[in-house]
Amino acid sequence: MRNIRGDGDIMFAEVIIEYGAKAVDKLFTYIVPEEYKSVIKIGHRVLVPFNNKLIEGFVLNISNQYNGEYELKRIEKLCDEEPILNQEMLYLGEAIQKKILCSRISIYQAMLPKALKAKCNTNIGIKKDRYIVLDKDKKEISDYLDGCKYEMQKDILEQLLINDRIKVSKLNSSIETLYKKGLIRYEYEEVNRYNSNCSGKYHVVKLNQEQQAAVDKVELDKFKAYLLYGVTGSGKTEVYMELIDKVISQGKTAIMLVPEISLTPQIVDRFITRFGSEIAILHSGLSEVEKYDEYRKILTGKVKIVVGARSAVFAPLKNIGIIVIDEEHTSTYKQDNNPRYHARDVAMMRGKYYNAPVILGSATPSLESFARALNGVYELLTLKNRAGAGRLPKIEIVDMKEEARHGNFILSKSLTDKIWDRLRKREQIILLLNRRGYSSMLTCRDCGSVIKCPNCDISLTYHKSSNTNRCHYCNYSIKNVNRCPKCGSENMKDYGLGTEKLEEELNKVFKARVIRMDMDTTSKKGMHEKIITDFGEHKYDILLGTQMIAKGLDFPLVTLVGVINADSSLNVPDFRSAEVTFGLLSQVSGRAGRSDLAGEVVIQSYNPEHYSIVYAKEHDYYSFYKEEMSVRKTLSYPPYYYITLINITSRDYDLGFKEANKIGEFLRKNLSVDTKVLGPSMASVFRINNIYHYQCIIKYKRDDKLNKVLTHIDNIYKINNKVDVSIDVDPIRV
Q1: 237-242-248-249 Cα dihedral, nearest 10 degrees
Q2: Which of 539, 548, 629, 715 is the most interior residue, by most CB within 10 Å?
Q3: Which range marks the domain in which residue 552 is found?
Q4: Cα 441 to Cα 496: distance, rounded to the nearest angstrom
């Protein structure tokens, strides 16, 4: 069919498709079949033929004209009764694409649960319970009973006269007979398969003066960004809930984002206790069917509040009245693969769309957010004091260089003594070690060789529980090595300290109940909730874990926090390393002393003089901010400069090197003279899964040429199958 101009008889749909080819990010036109003309809408999910396959796409435009020159195919199937993408989601797709230079289809797919991305099936994932109910009045039923000879039928009808309905999993001949006679009918009720296991222990508390002042300053009927800066334990969650309560009373909806799924059990418990069944939960710990059920609750308007991790920012709520991002400084709000969106940016877009406030909360705000607050871009709300009887804990820094001279390589004498003291008092302890596994590397003592991953430029981490050496980048693993593969020596030694090894040490030294929380122990469904619940019920004395235990958790009996290898994050080659270190130490320290019991913190460090550690000891965010800002200004890093990172990857070392240099030269020739281009250089981990990684860093304050230049590079490498180029605007790490 060529150069068709419809006169109303033919309808055309422009569809964006999900296809593996890098070059496909455009609209394709299809004929709308007759049976779909009256129901198809923009945002509908459809099944269309493409390259001799049936693939999924979304309708972005409908018209009665086609001016192309290609023969058109028909839409094969309309997947859902109603559009999956509403007008706002379509707007978001365009807005995000302009900001981060990614494909629109990748953004639309990021918005949806997996069940709506896979097979095209209207009823995918839906579970319904079947009930039988009476379909005649009681007199007709009684008349039938009088003449009925079948006991099973009589029993069913008599039960229905007493009960409104009866749930049936399987149909039998008696039920089917009653149905055919018109005495009963079937009713179906959709089942939600997510169980929050709410404890109901949370009680609504009256806001103190500081909290109420923060609530009163927020204007609920217009878009504005607020930064709620409050010390750990100051009751930021209570402020969030009070604001959300006000929004709900206005007939609007709310989104509450948390950075870690480990936080959701306690947050969800609070929200469900206060708001009841009006809540949907979205995070990666849910099964696909649970995610789908929760998503349908939102889509059908059954809930008013959504609580979840990063992707919950796309929840298809209508009439949004507020969006809250708790622990806004956390890197997990940035997606680390395409589309590389930041939840904060999406929240701002949605806030503007609905004319609703966006609340960013943290005890250790990102430098960018705090700078914007001081410059009046955000309004600053401050909580200077802990709520209730809690006081900020006393913090002690231990120099591990000195401890090592006395043979204390894992636990300092001070921390050991304090752990014994808390165990005697039947109080609880949290220990942070931000490295999972048993040890960080296995080394031959004779020749010095290290057991490395064959696919990546990194040593394998030893996991004692599985007796394997594992790569944390590509997941390659081998059984533990007893003999050096290079020299044949059996003199092998593991070095470094991981959570598994620390757990073993704790069980050796203390008579205590220890539980470990890291990626290894929480891989099974429900383990986050179980560990947090069990520790909260004092089934364990010591909670040991990685950074997932550092934020948001509230346990009244925790009076001691210990940080092992506190400066490990300082050794990461990244401009945010000091900020990450300060934030992590401050956040985990905040887990101590959150009730009337006084709290203490012991920070073990080989670099105790570093300003990020010294200011964390003093609970002095302002001083840390000033010193770190001076470093950022000197080195031209955010928030003084914007950054865009270009990653160039290839399986061919020479080709990757060649193309990376071409990109670097192109950037220098075509960007403004004030824009700084660093690289290309090898990434900090150069080879991952046998793919070589190069990068160029662009630093700029303003460059009108940048978007055009980046779009040009993106378009060129969409059609290059041997080199991948990805553009990361405002990266978390470089």
Answers
A1: 170
A2: 548
A3: 394-436+498-632
A4: 7
In 166-252, where does DSSP find H-type helix? 173-180, 209-217, 236-249
* 365-382 residue pLDDT tens: 999 999 999 999 999 999
The residues near 310 (Cβ < 8 Å, ≥ 6 apart) are 257, 259, 332, 333, 335, 343
Q: Which residues are paired to 648 by β-bridges?
A: 694, 725
Q: Are residues 448 and 488 in the same domain?
A: yes
Domain end, chosen from 96, 116, 136, is at: 116
Neighbouring CB atoms inside 10 A of 558's CB total 25
Residues 144 and 28 in one domain: no
Number of structural domains the chain divides into? 6
Same domain membership, residue 583 and residue 531: yes
Looking at the fold, whether 490 and 502 belong to one and the same domain comes out as no
Specify whether the CB–CB gap between 41 and 59 falls below 8 A.
Answer: yes
* pLDDT band for position 719 (cuts 50, 70, 90): confident
Out of 632, 662, 678, pick the residue that ends a domain. Answer: 632
- pLDDT, tens digit, for every residue of 673-704? 999 999 999 999 999 999 999 999 999 999 99
Q: Which pair of tokens denotes residue 710?
A: 């980046």
Q: How many CB atoms lie within 10 A of CB 468?
A: 16
- Which runs of consecutive H residues, i.e. helices, occur in 44-115? 87-100, 104-111
Q: Quick one: tokens of 510?
A: 């203390």
* Residue 35 DSSP class: G
| Whole-angstrom distance, CA of residue 721 vs CA of residue 339 | 19
- Residue 4 counted as domain residue: no
* 3-state helix/strand/coil string of 340-358: CCEHHHHHHHHHHHHCCCE
Residue 626 region by backbone torsions, left for phi larger than 0, else alpha for psi between -120 and 50, else beta: alpha
- Asked if residue 253 has pLDDT above 90, the reply is yes
The Cβ of residue 52 has, within 10 Å, a number of other Cβ atoms equal to 5
Same domain for 561 and 608 = yes
Within a domain: 121? no
**How many Å apart are CA 389 and CA 598, to the nearest integer?**
10
- The CA distance from 675 to 298, in Å, is 44
What pLDDT score was predicted for residue 24?
A: 66
- Distance CA(669)–CA(666), nearest Å, equals 5
Task: Name the amino acid, one letter, at 253.
Answer: T
Phi, psi for residue 218 in degrees, rounded to 5: -80, 125
Q: What mean pLDDT is reported for the chain?
A: 90
**CA proximity to 142, closest of 166, 123, 161:** 161
3-state secondary structure of 267: helix
Strands 77-78, 45-50: parallel, antiparallel or unpaired by DSSP?
antiparallel
290 φ/ψ sector (left φ>0, alpha ψ -120 to 50, else beta)? alpha
Q: Is residue 542 part of a domain?
A: yes
The verdict on 137 and 80 lying in the same domain is no
Q: In what order do the strands lie in the sheet with 600-605?
A: 394-399, 600-605, 558-563, 428-432, 542-545, 514-517
Do 286 and 364 share a domain, yes or no? yes
3-state helix, strand, coil in the chain (%, to 5): 35, 25, 40
Cα 459 off chain centre by: 28
Residue type, 282: L
Closest residue by Cα to residue 319 from 179, 402, 388, 220: 220
CA dihedral 629, 630, 635, 636 (to 10 degrees): 60
- If we measure between CA atoms, which residue out of 544, 545, 543, 450 comes closest to residue 496? 450
What is the C-alpha radius of gyration for the chain, rounded to an integer number of angstroms?
A: 30
Q: Is residue 576 part of a domain?
A: yes
**Helix H or strand E segment including 616:** helix 611-617
Q: List the one residue out of 147, 128, 140 whose CA is nearest residue 186.
A: 128
- Residue 48 to residue 28: CA distance in whole angstroms: 10
Cα-flanking dihedrals φ and ψ of residue 150, to 5°? -105, 115
